[in-house]
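Example record used in the benchmark description.
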Amino acid sequence: DMRRPPFRQGAFDGGTIVSTLEHVGLGFYDPRRDSEDDVRLMMEIRSLIRPGGKLILTVPFGQPEMDRHQRVYDRERLRRVTAKWTIEAERYAIRDGIAWREATEREAAPAHSVPETQAVAMLALRNPG
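Model output (C-alpha cells):
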C-alpha cells in the first residue's frame, strides 16, 4: 500500500514517481477512494526522503478533471501535492501528433488529459528538511 510504506523516515536519498500519483485514491486500482490520497501520499513520501534528498515527479497536466483511472493536475493541485517540497525544476510537454514536444505551462494548461494524457508536468523536487 503506497499510502503506508514499510520504510523508516529518511530511508532514501531520492525517489521517482512517474505516471503513478494521478491514480492514487481513485478506486480503480484499489477499492478505497479518497480525493486527498495523492496529497497525503506526497507528504508521506517526503518523510521517507532524507532532508536535501530529491524526488522526480511526473503527472498529467491541464484542465483539472478525472475519470476512474486518473486525475489531471492544474497549477493549484500541483502546488497542493508539492507543498513543503522545494521545486528545483519544472518542465512541461504536450502531445504533438504521436510525439511529444517541450511546452510552456501556458501551452499545457488548456489540455484535456482525460481519457488520454495530452500534457504532462515534470518536476524535480527537493526535501528541504
